[in-house]
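Appendix B, Record 12. Input sequence as logged:
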Amino acid sequence: MSVRVRYAPSPTGYQHIGGARTALFNYFFARSQGGKFLLRVEDTDQERTFDLAMQDLYDTMQWLGIAWDEGPVVGGDKGPYIQSERKELYQSYAKKLIDEGKAYYCYCTSGRLDRIRKIQEQNSLPPGYDRHCRNLSEEELAEAKATGVAPVVRLKTPLTGSVMVHDTILGDISRDAKDINPDVILLKSDGMPTYHLANVIDDHLMEITHVLRAQEWVPSAPVHKLIYEAFGWQMPQLCHLPMVMGSDGQKLSKRHGATSVKDFIAKGYLPEALTNYISLLGWSYDDSREFFTKEELEQLFKLERINKAPAVFDYKKLDWFNGQYIRKLSPEEFFARVEPFLSRPIKGQNDAGEEIILEEALFSSQPDTEQLNLIKRALPMVQERITFLNEVGGMLRFLLVRPEIYPVADALPKGLTREQLLDILAKVKPMIADFMAHEDEINEQKMRDFATTEGIKIGALLQPLRVAVTGSKVSPPLFGSIRLLGSEETLLRLDNLIAQL
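Logged structural output:
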């Protein structure tokens, strides 16, 4: 049978990096096997579903370069692929289980369920439904219907024995009947299915052959096995992916750093870098190779190479990956990737968790041709130095905006007084005036010779020059910056620093 896998997120929040890994693993497995990759939207939780989350799902998949063969937008003959559009289908299958005596209507109110829960807690009893409505007589059932309470539909889970499921990675998973959530709800009182019912029906009708999902869903596997058996269907092959953890061994969350894909996009990660890195979270080709293109992963991915152990999300390693991928870009591609970030402010959060603008956009309006060309000429200077695409605007702002107030403390090297520095800067001005007439190697030698004559280290000369030119002691290469600005503008800035000193 041809491989058919699916990624089935719930649009109740923005796409998590763990979800992106699940999508990629499914996608790579389908491509490596010549199979089909489906996208299915599990939006049965209507109260928590929102449109921006749905759009974020599509944007994330597009950004990662994951093309689905069947699903929303592209269609397919197993649709609809949005669960809220399949409501009547789930209801008909739930009714089938009731008619066959494998499920039943439950009229218990939330008040009664709360009381049962408190009694269980007070008496240290196992949690779960007490099966009150499972064997109602005809008379009791009529009385329950007369109350007007909208019922849920519950599955008749076994009272004894055990349930066994096999997982490609974890092996056999066995659960005693007493440890399975008793008589789980299949259909909610509003007629919408629970995750358990919709998931099983859709996977069967969409002919899913393999289910690759996070290990947090392992407890659901025995329940799903029972539902498959109730319908008389064969269960797909399960493959529960290792958890993604933070450096402290806890499940990855916002306290560790960015977790939603949109946050990584906003910071300036490349999709190639993020795809490569998260594909290594729980999967490996061998013990040494780290870099893979998306096309290579589509060929090389195998379930047998997925690990059991949790994967640790190392932000520093991801940052290194991103820097490496940035260096590989051609000048034209680098500009194309950077350009959108030049018109976006850099945002962050204050101590209260409120979104604030950390740095204004380099271009607040449409840049003119001269400005754009200047930035293009400067990009090679920063390509080797940045880790994120959103760093470029801040690093090159000095080319378009002359510093007004200089950090005088940064300009003053250790061991020099202000008077000494002022004397040195006055003497170096002729070299700046003559800078454009010489190659950088000659200018550097002239400055080294000057520093030796003055009895100072070359860094003590270059540091104040860097502050004068860029307004910061951390900047792109100094000589390249002077060459872009020209001698006249550089001298003007040097005079401004001298005045402030």
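The longest helix spans residues 17-32.
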